[in-house]
Design goal:
Helix 1 runs antiparallel to helix 2, helix 12 packs across helix 13 and helix 16 runs antiparallel to helix 18. Helix content is 70%, strand content 0%. It is globular.
């Protein structure tokens, strides 16, 4: 028997971006596209339990969404009835210049990442429209309030509409101006799939990681000489290659040091290493994604965590901090420093980040681990509590809870 809720969830994961992109192309309005797509899924929630899952859920959702879009246009009297009926009866997508790559979702990304929008707004809008992330998920990714993120996305859609920004992959000369925003979007979409921030989703969302990799490959086809595109693709491949061993059978996160490296996807790891080597061979100064890929290449080159070249990892983070002095990069550098210089040195660096990262679960999880290693059990327990309170990912919460409980049992045993 088909689980209807599971079928709807799977359809949303598989169809959201495709549906929004198709509607945006047909109707030229992001607001209409999103509302119609959301309405189609809401109708599915109402009707599929009673009527059964249709033989072709994607086609059902597309037809329902188009009708909802046309209904909204009728209500707003934007087009006369003849034009609406013509649009509704036309089965194929209206012909238009497709640019270098015929991919609806890639065109939608480039629309959302127009230079007229602020960089953070480009990323947030695309995460919503293309990635299908909820506003709370995006707000967590940016470490901002949900209401503020909602307003940011609403304003961005209105600006695209008012400025009549075209729905297409830009010409070759326009690509560089949009590329950083597009790569930022794909990086965050991948991160949400790699470690989902919401408690109501699977802890690892392969649909998001696979789509981010697919779109990054398309952009590499567009710009094969761009180092940051290659770097981002390498970073994704090296991270995705570890996915088979990241969550235990009981649903708990497995950290890099505890993973079964024999279960990694050797083909993806090898491809990622090749891309990193190719970029190093150019002799050109690397960008942010290339350095992150190089860090991951060091980690995945070691046959055992004890063989990791931590000196090289810290040196790469030193290089990255000069390009991106963000507190999250500083936090990740401190984790590597703990392996090289010890937990006390690392904790000093981590504590300096409190003002910036007090609402970030990984900050408290890192402090908890460092305090545990320094035998400061009571402080470590409190840090674990805070990390668990802030973490949304179910696998990560399970891991942190186990570590905290182990700490409590250890404290109760007689010395």
């Amino acid at each position: 028997m088909i689980d209807v809720r599971e079928a709807i969830s799977e359809a949303h994961d598989a169809q959201w971006a495709r549906l929004v992109a198709a509607l945006a192309r047909r109707f030229g309005d992001l607001d209409i596209a999103e509302e119609a797509a959301a309405g189609a899924f809401a109708t599915a929630v109402e009707r599929w339990p009673a009527d059964g899952v249709p033989p072709n859920p994607g086609a059902w959702l597309t037809t329902t969404a188009k009708r909802k879009a046309v209904d909204r246009i009728r209500r707003e009297h934007r087009r006369d009835d003849k034009e609406i009926e013509a649009q509704m009866s036309y089965e194929g997508d209206p012909p238009e210049p497709l640019g270098a790559i015929d991919d609806d979702r890639l065109r939608l990304i480039f629309t959302c990442c127009h230079p007229a929008l602020a960089m953070e707004t480009r990323v947030a809008l695309t995460l919503r429209m293309v990635g299908g992330l909820t506003v709370p998920e995006i707000a967590r990714a940016f470490l901002v309030q949900e209401a503020a993120m909602g307003r940011r996305i609403t304003r961005a859609k209105a600006k695209i509409k008012a400025a009549r920004i075209p729905y297409r992959v830009p010409s070759a000369e326009d690509l560089p101006a949009r590329l950083s925003g597009v790569l930022g979007v794909l990086f965050l979409v991948f991160n949400e799939g790699y470690l989902a921030s919401g408690p109501d989703t699977d802890p690892v969302r392969h649909d998001l990681t696979a789509e981010a990799i697919r779109l990054t490959r398309l952009i590499r086809d567009l710009m094969p000489e761009d180092g940051e595109v290659a770097g981002l693709l390498a970073l994704m491949l090296l991270t995705e290659g570890r996915r088979p061993s990241r969550v235990s059978a009981s649903g708990e996160l497995i950290t890099l040091g505890e993973q079964d490296r024999g279960a990694w996807d050797a083909a993806l790891i090898a491809e990622g290493h090749r891309l990193v080597r190719e970029r190093l061979a150019t002799g050109l100064a690397p960008g942010r994604y290339q350095i992150l890929a190089a860090i991951n290449a060091v980690h995945t080159s070691a046959g055992d965590v004890r063989d990791t070249d931590w000196w090289q990892v810290v040196a790469l983070y030193d290089q990255l901090v000069r390009l991106d002095p963000s507190p999250i990069i500083a936090l990740n550098r401190a984790i590597a420093v703990a392996e090289l210089d010890g937990p006390a040195v690392a904790l000093t660096s981590v504590d300096r980040l409190e003002d910036s990262l007090a609402g970030y679960h990984a900050y408290h999880a890192t402090r908890a681990d460092l305090l545990r290693r320094l035998d400061r059990g009571q402080e470590a327990h409190a840090a674990y509590d805070k990390a668990i309170e802030l973490a949304g990912n179910t696998a990560e919460t399970a891991y942190l809870t186990r570590r905290r409980d182990e700490l409590s049992r250890s404290a109760q045993r007689p010395r």
